[in-house]
Amino acid sequence: MEVFQMTALTISRTSRLLRLNHTLDYGTINVLREFQTFGGLCKNYRRPKIDIGVEIPDDGLPKDYRLQVFKVSSRRLDSIVSRAVGQGRGQAEKLILTGKVQINEEDIPKKAAYYVQENDIIDIWKQPVEGNTKFAEVHRIEIINYVLTDQGYDINLKSWKDFYVQNWRDKN
């Protein structure tokens, strides 16, 4: 095993490489800057985004969604909705009970105890489209898959913040 004694560390802003110079044979070791980023994430107790292990087919349309990982304690609908809207489970339960949430474009029973499955599509109603109330603006979530971990579930999903669907709340 060869031991290097580091004498200098230079970081070039124009280059994506770190340059480590050592004194034994004056050689240079190039290290990608991503390794530095990974070390910073570990130091801050954050994990880098994981590979979800699912290939997302290209449908030819522009990518207008975000891939996200929700870390939740259970697969209950109110837990997922609360993470999506950034509010508490009580507020998420109100949205479900007032009919502002649909699963797979169908009305759900008025309860928060529905357990989401892979390929479920969840629509959270925001408001009717201005000028045409037959359509509504929703926050759409598509469950890709989920993994059981020690802390609960890691739910991999696609998320659209502004998505337009037929307004199921329009009584006309």
Automatic annotation (TrEMBL):
Record key words, sorted: RNA-binding
Domain RNA-binding S4, residue spans: 75-139
SUPFAM superfamilies: Alpha-L RNA-binding motif
GO biological process, one term: regulation of mitochondrial transcription
GO molecular function, one term: RNA binding
Keyword Plastid: no
One Gene Ontology CC term in the entry: mitochondrion
InterPro entries referenced in this protein's UniProt entry, alphabetically: S4_RNA-bd (IPR002942), S4_RNA-bd_sf (IPR036986)
Keyword Lipid metabolism: no
Gene3D superfamilies on file: RNA-binding S4 domain (3.10.290.10)
Protein name: S4 domain-containing protein
Organism: Wuchereria bancrofti
